[in-house]
Amino acid sequence: MIGLTGVAALALSACAQSERGSDSGSGKVGGTLTFGAAGAPKLFDPFYAVDGETFRVARQMFDGLTTFKPGTAEPEGQLAEKWSSSSDGLTWTFNLRKGVKFHDGTEFNAAAVCANFDRWYNQKGAGQSDAVSQYYSDNFGAFAGQAKTSLYKSCAAKDANTAEVVLTSSTSKFPDILGLPAFSMQSPTALKQYDADNVVAEGDSFKFPAYATDHPTGTGPFKFSKYDKANNTVELVRNDDYWGEKTKLDKLVFRIIPDETARKQALQSGDIDGFDFPNAADWESLKKAGFNVQIRPAFNVLYLGIDQKNNPKLQDLKVRQALAYGINRDQLVKSQLPEGAKVASQFIPETVGGYAKDVTEYKYDADKAKALLAEAGASDLTLKFYWPSEVTRPYMPNPKDIFGAISADLQKIGVKFEVTTKPWNGGYLTDVDQHIPDLFLLGWTGDTGSADNWIGTFFGNPENRFNTASSPWGATLAADLKKADAEPDRDKRYKLYEDINKKIMGEYLPAIPISHSPPALVVKSNIKGIVPSPLTDERFATASIG
Amino acid sequence: MPTPTTKKERIDALAESTSDSGVSLAASAWKRLRRSPVFLVGLVIIVLFLVTAVIAPWIAPHDPAARDLIDQVVKARNEIPPAQPGYPLGGDQVGRDFLSRLLVGSQQTLLVGVFATLIGLVGGLILGTLSGALGGWVDSLVMRVVDVMLSIPQLLLAFGIGALFAKPNLFTVILAVSIVQIPVFARLLRGSMLAQRSSDHVLAATALGVKPGPIVFRHMLPNSLGPVIVQSTLVLATSIIDAAALSFLGLGNPDDTVPEWGQMLGNAQTVIDSHPALAFWPAGCIILIALGFTLVGESLRDALDPKNRR
Amino acid sequence: MLRYTVRRLIQLVVVVLVLSLLVFAWLRALPGGPASALLGDRGTEESRAALSAQLGLDQPIFIQYFKFLGRAITGNFGNSTGVQPGDPVVDIFLQRFPATLELSAFAIVLAVIAGIPLGYLAAKRRGGWFDNLSVGASLIGVAVPVFFLAFLLKYLLSTKFGILPSFGRQDGAIEATRVTGFFVLDGILTQEWDAAWDAFRHLVLPAIALATIPFAVIFRITRAAVLEVLNEDYVRTAESKGLLGSVIRRRHVLRNAMLPVVTTIGLQVGALLAGAVLTEKVFAFSGVGEALALGFERRDYPLLQMFIMVAAIVYVLVNLLVDLSYALIDPRIRAR
Predict the structure, then answer these.
(1) What's C159's domain CATH number?
(2) Closest approach of A539 to chain B, Cα-based (Å)
(3) Do the Cβ atoms of A401 and B94 come within 8 Å?
(4) A388: left (phi over 0), alpha (psi -120 to 50) or beta
(5) Chain B residues near residue A284 by CB distance under 8 angstroms
(6) DSSP E strands: which ranges in A22-122?
(7) Which of A168, A178, A475, B20 has the most Cβ atoms closer than 10 angstroms to its Cβ?
(8) Does the distance separating the beta carbons of C224 and B3 come in below 8 Å?
(9) In chain C, whose CA is at the least distance from the CA of B250?
């Protein structure tokens, strides 16, 4: 049965291919790609999503005004062919692609763009909750009618294919953020028809409207087909009216397999064609078995957080530097992190604009660390060290072993610990935010290539997890970050960020950056055309089964 | 007495069949046990385990927490230190001597088993004694509570309790696997005491004017030892297996500085394909020791059962 | 009899209410909780506080409990926060229950067709090598952690030799029509034989792993019951009368020994539920057990709350049915 449909599809799409001529493809046309996902998507309206599983599916069905160049974090046009901004960085003009239609037949034009912006800005009630529209709140700040100032001011359709968006302040993250799946362009007709904004808080959680659960409508290369909950599969089908190069696949199926070992075995037994985030320990054996382990550029950072609030000794730069010298980060990276992982010299990876080449480095030196501690009168330091259980993150594949390595190193320089472990969502994050630990493990995966998304998030508000407010430089750092973000000129902005990074590593050291660790995805060797993305922004539309 | 099927009936049957074990019964039981191969095999396993646990710190070649072989751990190539001179079983995922961890692991495993059983026993003792000795409304109340607890699948209840702790650690694991044993012991002790209340020596003591307290502690409790010993031996096995299951679900003790077999097995699940030895060794140890306790428990039950004395 | 039933039913209601209150109160007392789970990694202290206020999580616990009860009566037990985020937990349960039922039924069938004949044979040859061997095997069966056995089976029969599928309920490439949610049954009903066969193959390994403990118990009860009956006077009389072995077996031994065995089978429901949590996790078998395992791992409290309560209700109900059938058969129990 499978074979038959495959052949039929092959025959059909062979005709399609001959029309298009032999474009990029070495891969054959047709077939179903089944990709193993670790969790179920929460819903299919990316604007209301906060989780990677939802975004992964959404990326295949939706386009944004901008997107990211495959394999990088650099913005490029998608539904907007090009854009320009006024010199003050406030007014942005987008020239839209012509002849694009949403999956429901609605035409994509400037009015549709503004309808989307207005939809975001005018969320009501439960729609404003951080748990529902977190990406909007994080990036735009406020909704219509709220006391805080929103980044968004207005949107106007200059003509059918020109949209003008006005902001209230200049920021480095614009227009990059428009490439985030949360800000995908969705069909205004479908949004209205299926009551898309009708989110309700109900009991302990939120109830989403039919649009988000059954009728997501974008312009992307795949269309939503069904979510078979009994068999844990999400099925997308090819959009034959796609404006760009149509995908070679007939179907894209996401199969939800929560257990990591089960995902690996499913690949080995041929049940799925690929899956995300294979355990680093398995990369080698997967490669040997002939699978294609695609390593993404590392776009994250793991750091050892230092909270200055409870232990005054930690407000002393020398003590924080001693901790930095006391950790053998080279060994940690080699023994605990996957191929391609690097020791972090600062809080942003090399690919982010504003990366400083010559920052103060902290090469492992236990004696120097001890000396610094003695100098600061902190030789008998006892710290509350927290690490999270039941969690893996691309930047932190195995928190227990990473904690083990760091604590073993620091014990060698004479630091004592009161160790606490808590489940990630069962107390760890809340305790960190409530300033209970002195040391903690945490990290960040970047959304965009703007430095503000990284260090701005960490230190942009002096009342942060590190409590930099208790040091005199905390407020200065926050102000400098704000200034850099608002600088419209790219080169000047990068220079400002470089200076900040140097100061962070040399004079402030609010936390200790540990490593950048690349996540991978693995596919069968006959799957071609998936470009690993630092943002985990892989588009399966370019894939083919060879 | 029909063959017991429900959990309650099994407990009650155990309580009745092995309760009146006076000295002579113990002696005759021992006589039969000595000749039982099942018992002897179980006993040998347990003795070996106990001896290992006691002398582990001295026979372990290395510090089980020291990352001696960390330089041979390369995540990128999934390399774990192989067997080598001085390290006959190689190292674990973070370069600690695997043999030493297995040896020293017996200590915490024993600790889990013994403490889980003790807590279950003491809890059951308090409830069961109250209930069996006092009777009346105390009895009804306690037994209702016990029945409620028995009405939830045991292991599932242990999972539930394990998940409710905000800070999982060794003690919460012990607590989770022991709380579910309390009702079992309570019902067992109550049944045993009820069986004795009408027995001759208790009636005699009451007639002589001995107070209820001394009767319970001097006469009734000692005679309930038989079923308690049988049940405890079996619970030692179950609690070790249950603790491993908790670790497998991520509800175990997250701190692995001091090794424990269930935890070692739980931790090995991600590398079971590439380094099966890391899972097979602790699993083998758990199976062996659980088998040891089960064998001894079952043969004790048979030996103490008067029905088998014909 | 009626009074007995009513009393037990009232007891059930009390059990469920007490249990729900305990679970509810304890879950609310924990740090993190629903707000943390909903906001994920990027939540902040303020956003968590705001969300808690919005969802009424900052109100006194008993008010929250009564609100919860009010919603629960209308069938709304809240939405999952970790396993299938956003889905009503009732829906998740209903979707997944057929899978667990299918698996458990298969496991019980396996345990029965292996346990009863073996138990009978072992009893007949008490003390012989077959008896010793099978008793030994049943003891080892109990000593092996269920999840390890599941791993072992998967490693050998799937990863190593590729005889059976390693995970899931059905191959994703198979176009199957869903009717009842029982995949094998669906395949038979719709005459999609490939779908039924594939679903069946997916059942084999998890069912074997799940069946070990019930098998050991059924085996031992059968053995004990048959031994008991063999020693009864009527069997001895029948033997001494020179009745044929097969007649004795049919007329006296099996019939009388089956009573406790049948009740035992009913009582394995609890063991199956706990076992399903472990087995379904290993085989990524999307049933109730896997949801529970993930719920524990991801601290999905609304889901755990409902699933544990339903598990308790099911278990108590089965217990009740068993006790009732027992009471019908054995008048001594009714008198108590």
Answers:
(1) 1.10.3720.10
(2) 26
(3) yes
(4) beta
(5) 76-78
(6) 32-37, 66-68, 75-77, 80-85, 91-96
(7) A178
(8) yes
(9) C297
Specify whether C159 is located in the same domain as C227. yes
| Pick among B67, B72, B75, B274 to test the A interface (most A CBs inside 10 A) | B75
Residue A6: pLDDT band (50, 70, 90) is very low
User: CA dist B138 to B120, B132, B143, Å?
Assistant: 20, 9, 8
CB C83 within 8 A of CB C92: yes
Among A253, A185, A230, which residue's Cα sits nearest to residue A35?
A253
> Using CA atoms, how far apart are residues C8 and B94, in angstroms rounded to an integer?
54
Number of domains in chain C: 2
Pick A281's closest partner by Cβ from B70, B75, B256: B75
Give A186-225 as a DSSP string: --HHHHHHTTTT--EEETTEEE--HHHHH----SSSEEEE
Which among B213, B221, B230 has a CA at the least distance from the CA of B302? B230
Q: How far is C147 from chain A (nearest CA, A)?
A: 13
Q: What are phi and psi of A234, to 5 degrees?
A: -115, 130
Is C153 found in the same domain as C46?
A: no
- Pair C253, C160 in one domain: yes
Neighbouring CB atoms inside 10 A of A391's CB total: 19
Average pLDDT over residues C231-253: 67
Interchain proximity B95–A336, CB inside 8 Å? no
Contacts of B71 (CB under 8 A, 6+ apart): A331, A335, B95
Residue at C300 is within a domain: no
Q: How confident is the model at residue A372 (pLDDT cuts 50, 70, 90)?
A: very high
Cα C69 from chain centre: 26
Instruction: Please tell me whether residues C34 and C145 are part of one structural domain.
Output: no
Question: CB B5 to CB C151 under 8 A?
Answer: no
Percent of chain A at pLDDT > 70 equals 95
C-facing residues of A in 419-478 (CB < 8 A) are 422-423, 425-431, 433-434
How is residue C296 annotated by DSSP? H
Which of C31, C40, C82 minimises the CB distance to A430?
C31
Whether C6 is in a domain gets the answer: no
- Asked if the Cβ–Cβ distance from A335 to B78 is below 8 Å, we say no
pLDDT at C331: 53
Asked if the Cβ–Cβ distance from C35 to A201 is below 8 Å, we say no
Name the residue in chain A with its Cα closest to that of C55: A204
Give how far Cα A469 sits from Cα of A307, A309, A440, A461, C192, Å: 11, 9, 18, 8, 67
Is the domain of C38 the same as that of C129?
Answer: no
Q: Tell me which chain B residues have a C-beta less than 8 angstroms from the C-beta of C264.
A: 5
Q: Dihedrals φ, ψ of A339, to 5°?
A: -50, 135
Domain boundary among C73, C89, C122: C73
Q: Would you tell me which residues 319-358 of chain A have a C-beta closer than 8 angstroms to some C-beta of chain B?
A: 331, 334-341
How big, in percent rounded to 5, are the helix, strand and coil portions of chain C? 80, 0, 20
Is residue C195 one of the residues assigned to a domain?
no
C28 and C118 co-located in one domain: no
The per-residue pLDDT for range A31-47, each reduced to its tens digit, is 899 999 988 888 999 99
Q: For residue C52, is it within any domain? A: yes
Q: Which one has a higher pLDDT value, A166 or B160?
A: A166
Contact A400 B256 (CB under 8 A): yes
Q: Which single residue is written with the structure tokens 């039969």?
A: B32
One domain for residues C125 and C39: no
In this structure, chain C runs to a length of 336
Tell me B94's DSSP state.
T
Give the per-residue pLDDT at C326: 65
Contact A231 C170 (CB under 8 A): yes
How far C113 CA sits from the closest chain A CA (Å)? 29
Domain that holds residue C43: 11-73
Q: Kindly state whether residues C138 and C269 are assigned to the same domain.
A: yes
Distance CA A507, CA A299 (A): 25
